[in-house]
């Protein structure tokens, strides 16, 4: 599929139904994999109990699709407050009188039945909220984003493995250049046409980006281990002032889930202990660690505009693509998305996903920290609610791009913007470096 612009109304309805069902199967898989005690337990103060995410997904669906789009009567107005993410901090959620696992499943099932019912007689035009089925797309993406959050909760959970998946494809046996060159000039950032793009991705606007070099692939575990071995965590010269304070306070010495034994690095990954694979992109590092590594390597993190230009700009046409490989939706030959694998693929994998500039794995594998604060594009309009993006704009959050192995394709695009606090490490985040050309390299 290229974009929803091309679909007729009935095909669009069918697409919505398929996406809703596909998404619900993933939520079920993540929550059926553990028992009730596990569902109500808080596995980390950073996360909600899984049963909160589950009912929250239903609550948002009730608010937007059942009540607003469908104009139907409220199903459970009494629980609106419990599942309003702005009312209670994650750490406090286990103490709330939440729906239990059985009630939560029943509730989201009831909401979904009403949604399938109203989908048939909702006009998919006329009102901005339903134009090209936007509200349905927003709810699909919302549930998929919480599914990724639940996957992060699984990673934090103690105990034997509960999730299983095939290993990702190997990288082809070829020598890739360490860096690719992106010539300077304007490109179109963001979108005004992608039907299900969220408010913060809009509108499309021209940005001038100076020439830069970008790492061909994300930084690997082996590369990151060299930074550790070189004393990178202990040397203040690589760290920003805030990064240094955080590193000291949190006693950071390695990526989250890593430990040293017998002179080697090991990690816990979804309940399995394994030696850290050198060829995979590093994951579970904070922005501060990424920034320190880049300084140590004599480089820097790419800005968000640099990242998007590398991922989307097609120098042959001057157009920005939907994805690095073109306008077609992601599939398993192009990117490691959708929890098909429970780990990033080795650096250099997915040659079919390569961008025009030659960079690989921009989409999928690991979210990539950028140097940029999460700010609105010129002409930004909050839609349909301020609490999705607008209240998070500012210097507290850094932008991440590209999606991870745990991101669904519905919630991942060349324009998609994720954000988090620069200290966060439980998300599936890694990074790649950029640098400004030296005078004789221009
Ligand atoms: C875009 C991933 C930062 O999980 O906080 C979920 C997505 N917004 N529910 C988050 C979101 C409302 C959001 N992130
Ligand atoms: Fe949410």
From TrEMBL:
GO terms, molecular function: gamma-glutamyl hercynylcysteine sulfoxide synthase activity; iron ion binding
Alphabetical list of SUPFAM superfamilies matching this protein: C-type lectin-like (SSF56436), DinB/YfiT-like putative metalloenzymes (SSF109854)
Residues that, per the record, bind Fe cation: 56, 142, 146
Protein EC: 1.14.99.50
Key words, A-Z: Iron, Metal-binding, Monooxygenase, Oxidoreductase
Chain residue ranges for the region called Disordered: 307-330
InterPro entries in alphabetical order: CTDL_fold, DinB-like, DinB/YfiT-like, EgtB, EgtB_Actinobacteria, Sulfatase_Mod_Factor_Kinase, SUMF_dom, SUMF_sf
Domain DinB-like span(s) in chain numbering: 20-150
Amino acid composition bias (Basic and acidic residues), ranges on this chain: 307-316
Domain called Sulfatase-modifying factor enzyme-like: residue spans: 177-435
Residues where gamma-L-glutamyl-L-cysteine binds: 90-93, 420, 424
Reactions this protein catalyses: gamma-L-glutamyl-L-cysteine + hercynine + O2 = gamma-L-glutamyl-hercynylcysteine S-oxide + H2O
Root EC class: oxidoreductase
Requisite cofactors: Fe(2+)
UniProt keyword Iron, yes or no: yes
Pathway, per record: Amino-acid biosynthesis; ergothioneine biosynthesis
Similarity comment: family membership: Belongs to the EgtB family.
Function: Catalyzes the oxidative sulfurization of hercynine (N-alpha,N-alpha,N-alpha-trimethyl-L-histidine) into hercynyl-gamma-L-glutamyl-L-cysteine sulfoxide, a step in the biosynthesis pathway of ergothioneine.
Record protein name field: Hercynine oxygenase
Naturally occurring in which organism (per UniProt): Saccharopolyspora flava
Organism ancestry: Bacteria, Bacillati, Actinomycetota, Actinomycetes, Pseudonocardiales
């Amino acid at each position: 599929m290229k974009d929803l612009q091309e679909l007729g109304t009935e095909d669009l309805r069918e697409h919505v139904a398929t996406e809703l069902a596909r998404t619900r199967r993933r939520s079920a898989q993540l929550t059926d994999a553990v028992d009730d005690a596990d569902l109500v337990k808080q596995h980390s103060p950073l996360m909600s109990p899984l049963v909160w995410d589950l009912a929250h997904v239903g609550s948002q669906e009730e608010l937007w699709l059942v009540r607003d789009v469908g104009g139907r009567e409220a199903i459970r107005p009494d629980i609106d407050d419990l599942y309003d993410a702005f009312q209670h901090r994650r750490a406090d959620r286990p103490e709330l009188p939440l729906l239990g696992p059985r009630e939560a499943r029943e509730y989201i099932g009831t909401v979904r039945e009403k949604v399938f019912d109203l989908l048939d007689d909702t006009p998919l035009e006329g009102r901005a909220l339903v134009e090209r089925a936007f509200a349905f797309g927003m709810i699909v993406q919302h549930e998929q984003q919480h599914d990724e959050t639940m996957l992060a909760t699984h990673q934090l959970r103690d105990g034997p493995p509960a999730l299983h998946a095939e290993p990702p494809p190997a990288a082809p046996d070829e020598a890739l250049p360490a860096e690719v060159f992106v010539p300077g000039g304007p490109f179109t950032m963001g979108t005004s046409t992608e039907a299900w793009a969220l408010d913060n991705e809009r509108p499309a606007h021209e940005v001038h980006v100076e020439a830069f070099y970008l790492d061909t692939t994300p930084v690997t575990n082996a590369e990151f281990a060299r930074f550790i071995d070189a004393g990178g965590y202990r040397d203040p010269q690589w760290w920003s002032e805030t990064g240094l304070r955080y590193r000291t306070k949190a006693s950071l010495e390695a990526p989250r889930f890593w430990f040293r034994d017998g002179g080697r690095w090991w990690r816990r990954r979804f309940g399995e202990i394994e030696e850290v694979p050198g060829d995979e992109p590093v994951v579970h590092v904070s922005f501060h660690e990424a920034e320190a590594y880049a300084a140590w390597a004599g480089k820097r993190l790419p800005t968000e505009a640099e990242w998007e230009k590398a991922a989307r700009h097609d120098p042959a046409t001057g157009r920005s693509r939907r994805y690095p490989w073109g306008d077609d939706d992601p599939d398993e030959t192009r990117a490691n998305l959708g929890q098909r694998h429970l780990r990033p693929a080795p650096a250099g994998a997915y040659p079919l996903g390569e961008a025009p500039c030659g960079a690989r794995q921009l989409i999928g594998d690991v979210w990539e920290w950028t140097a940029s604060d999460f700010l609105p594009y010129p002409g930004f309009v909050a839609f349909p609610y301020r609490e999705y993006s607008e209240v998070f704009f500012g210097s507290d959050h850094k932008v991440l791009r590209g999606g991870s192995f745990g991101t669904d394709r519905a919630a991942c695009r060349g324009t998609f913007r994720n954000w988090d606090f620069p200290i966060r490490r439980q998300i599936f985040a890694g990074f790649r470096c950029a640098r400004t050309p030296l005078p004789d390299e221009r």
